[in-house]
Amino acid sequence: MKSIVLSKPIQVHNNKVTVLEIQEPTFDQVEKYGIPFSHSERGDMRLDTRSALSYLPELAGIPRSSAQQMALHDVFLASMTIVIFLPVPRAWQSQTTILQRCLVLAHKPLRITPTSAESVP
User: What are phi and psi of 51, to 5 degrees?
Assistant: First the structure.
């Protein structure tokens, strides 16, 4: 299970939710919704948005109407989280690592520290 801190709260059964817990997909869910990514002719990984969005309510345990309230930023993070649960071909492993790093960065505030040349005495 992975947690996503939402940038905008959503209503789930009359409760305000700020964190989604995303479960790992099961065999039956993969059979039902398919693999949420494919590859392009160049070998790049391509997100299957329809498949990823189909997983979201079920893996997060929320109604579809609540998922529809999510900010697009949060939908993207949830989709990438779902993709990372699934095994990828060896040729895509570097792209998956990049996705994992992007998810980590997306959850951390950007901090800019001055370089020594910019430091004020």
Answer: -65, -45
Give, as one character, the DSSP assignment of residue 107: T
For residues 77 and 37, give the distance between their C-alpha atoms in angstroms, rounded to a whole number: 15
Kindly report, residue by residue over 73-94, the tens digit of the pLDDT: 999 889 888 888 877 655 555 5
* Alpha-carbon span 48 to 82, nearest angstrom: 11
Query: Is the Cβ–Cβ distance between 83 and 98 less than 8 Å?
Result: no
Dmax (CA) of the chain: 62
Question: In terms of C-beta density within 10 A (0-12 exposed, 13-18 middle, 19 or more buried), how is residue 3 classed?
Answer: exposed
